[in-house]
Amino acid sequence: MSKIKVGVLGAGTMGAGIAQVAAQSGHRVVLVDVNENALTKAKASLQKIIERLIEKGKWTEDFGNEVFGRIRFSTQMNDFEGSELIIEAIVENIEIKHAVFKQLESIVDENCILASNTSSLSIAAIGSVLNNPSRVIGIHFFNPAPLMPLVEIIPAVQTSEVVTENARAIIDAWNKVTVLAKDTPGFIVNRVARPFYGEALRIYEEGVADFATIDWAMTALGGFRMGPFTLMDYIGNDINYTVTETVFKAFYYDPRYKPSFTQKRHAEAGYLGRKSGRGYFDYNENAVTPEPVKDEVLGKEMLNRILVMLINEAADALFLNVATKEDIDLAMTKGVNYPKGLLKWADEIGIKNVLEQLETLFEEYGEDRYRPSPMLKRMVREGKNFF
Q1: CA-to-CA distance for 210 and 322, rounded, in angstroms?
Q2: pTM: predicted TM-score of the whole model, two decimal places
C-alpha cells in the first residue's frame, strides 16, 4: 500500500498515539491542535517514548529519528491539505465535531477519508452535516494506541463500501487487528464490556463482597488481567461513569446499561482513581492495600454472575448483527485483554448452563437487566454452539 499523507486532529494522548502509529508505519503525518500547549506536550511525550524504545533496543536511533521526522506539528487546519485520511480525536461533543468536520470538508479534496475516533457518538450523526457523508467512518483506537492491537472500524449508514474497505486496509497495514462494527452505541467493546463494571458494582452494592474480594475473584479465578475496580480506577471513575451514562441514554434507557450510584458518588467525591490518588482503592504513598476474602465458593459465584452477564451481552450483540461472532470474540480479547472470547467461553461452560444462570437471576430480581438474549434461547433449543 502506498504511503499516503495522514492527518490527525487533536494532540491529546489518543491523537498523539495515533500519529505515532501512522508515522512508524511510514506515513507523513500532520498532527493538528489549536492549542499550542497540547502540541508542545505531545512533542515532548513522543520524544520521550522514542528515547525509551531506543534504550530498550526495540528501535534503532535512525528509525526513531525517521518516525519523529515524519510528524509535522501544527496549529493550522489548512495544513491537512493533501491528506488522504484524517482521523479526528477531539472532545466527545457532537456540536464541536460538526463544526470541525465541516471545516475539514472545505480543506481536503473529495477522496479524502474523514474518520472519527469517537467511542460513544453516532458516526451517522457526525457525517450528517457534510455535503458528502459517504466518506465519513468511525476508526476507534484503544488507549494507548501504539500498544493496543485492536481498532474498531465503524461504517455509518451513509458510508460507502469503498471507504469502508479502504479505511480497513489502511489500518490493517499499520499492523493493527481490525474488527467491523455496526454504528450502534458503544460499538462492540464498550457495549459488551458494560457488565464487567456494572455487575461488579451491583454485587458490591448488595453487600455480597468488598472491592478487593470481587477483584480477586475476577483475576485469580477468572483469569482477567485486572479486576473491575482496579480497572475503573485505572480508566478514571469520571470517564467510566460518563461512558456508562452515554450508553444508557443511547439505548433509550435499557435497564441492562443502568449506571451505578456507587460509581457516581465516587466520581462526585473526586475519587477518580489512580489519577486523583484515590478511587475504590487508596493510591497514596502510605496506603494499606486491603486483603481480599479468598473464599473460593463465593468467588466462583461472583465470577459466574459477571461472566454470564458478559456472555449475554456478547450473544445479544451477535443477535442484533452488531458484528460477526469472530469479530466480537476478537474485540474482547484484543481490545480489553479478556482471557478468552466470550462466545467461545460460553461454548466451554455450556450455553444451557449460561441460560439457566441468567433465568435464575431474572426470576430472582424480576429486572429486565437480567433478561436472557433470544440468541441464547435459540441456541439451546437448537442444540447449537457458537463455534
Answers
A1: 34
A2: 0.95
End-to-end alpha-carbon separation of the chain, Å? 34
Decide which of 127, 151, 180 is a domain's last residue.
180
Q: Which three cell numbers stand for residue 61?
A: 536511533
Average pLDDT, rounded, for the chain: 96
DSSP string, 230-277: HHHHHH-HHHHHHHHHHHHHHTTT-GGG---HHHHHHHHTT--BGGGT
CB count in 10 Å sphere of residue 7: 30
Integer CA distances (angstroms), 142 to 101, 152, 188, 190, 296, in order: 22, 9, 12, 11, 33
**Domain tally, the chain:** 2
Nearest CA to 119 among 136, 148, 140, 100? 140
Q: Helix (H, G, I), strand (E, B), or coil: what is residue 337?
A: coil
SS3 57: coil
Domain that holds residue 203: 191-382
* Residue 125 clears pLDDT 90, i.e. is over it: yes
99: confidence class by pLDDT, cuts 50, 70, 90: very high
Residue 120: which pLDDT band, with cuts at 50, 70 and 90? confident
| pLDDT number for residue 1 | 56
In this structure, the number of other CB atoms found within 10 A of the CB of residue 380 comes to 17
DSSP codes of every residue in 151-209? EEEEE-TT--HHHHHHHHHHHHTTT-EEEE--SSTTTTHHHHTHHHHHHHHHHHHTTS-
* Whether the Cβ atoms of residue 134 and residue 161 lie closer than 8 Å to each other: no
| Residues annotated catalytic, as ranges | 119, 140, 152, 190
The one-letter amino acid at 374: P
Taking only the tens place, the pLDDT of each residue in 43-88 is 999 999 999 999 999 999 999 999 999 999 999 999 999 999 999 9
- 162 and 217 housed in the same domain: no
The SS3 call for residue 72 is strand
Q: What is d(CA 39, CA 362) in angstroms, rounded to the nearest whole number?
A: 51
287 lies in the same domain as 323? yes
